[in-house]
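Reviewers of the previous submission asked for a worked example of the structure-prediction workflow described in the proposal, so we include one complete record here. The input consisted solely of the amino acid sequence. No template or homolog information was supplied to the procedure at any stage.
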Amino acid sequence: MIKTAMILAAGRGERMRPLTDTTPKPLLFLGKYRLIEWQIMALVRAGINKIVINYAWLGEQFPLILGDGTRYGCQLMYSPETTALETAGGIAKALPLLIERNTSTLQPFIVVSGDIYTDYDYRELPNHLGENIAHLVLVNNPSYHLAGDMRLIDGQIMSDNAYQNNAYQNTLTYGNIGVFNPVVFLNLNHQVLKLFPWLYAQGSIKGEHYLGNWHNIGTPLQLKDLNHSYHLFVS
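From that input alone, the workflow returned the following structure tokens.
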């Protein structure tokens, strides 16, 4: 059973300004909890007992507000970044906190974004990846990202340049939820690397299409609307 996860929280949140001028985006409130707290609580319900959070912009607020994880029933650890790295570089930098090097087998870990809201049950994620390097959760393309990111064919993720073949209807969007094999990050320097297309070159990737509640909250209006829509649910 997977026991370790990483929450990505280093982004500047430009589209969420002016709210993010004084507060990191994942620390904004949705209902009575902060965005990142919904993720922490969901991961703990799934049996995760160690969570690593990377941060950059106004990063000192994270340990001050969230603490060591005791009140959530887990251990919180932090991976500070002077300048926010892209996803792959951020994971590589945090790798020493995510893996136990004194074990014979490196165990996979979960990676989620700190600024999404979803009712996806993290217990549904696979505990073992076999020969695959990752398992990703994909969602329908939102209105602001109609081109999507990739295709899912028979449970296998395929890269797809939708801008060239105009096959938007065949693509899905990466839901910022995944399980990763740490081996692919072992020899990666802390470079500024986007997760895709770098990950495609590393090996086979499995995936699933999630049709439940999922929101990537990017603007103050989206946050306000979600607070209004889910007032009873999240209060």
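The mean pLDDT is 86. We consider this example representative of the routine output the project will generate in years two and three.
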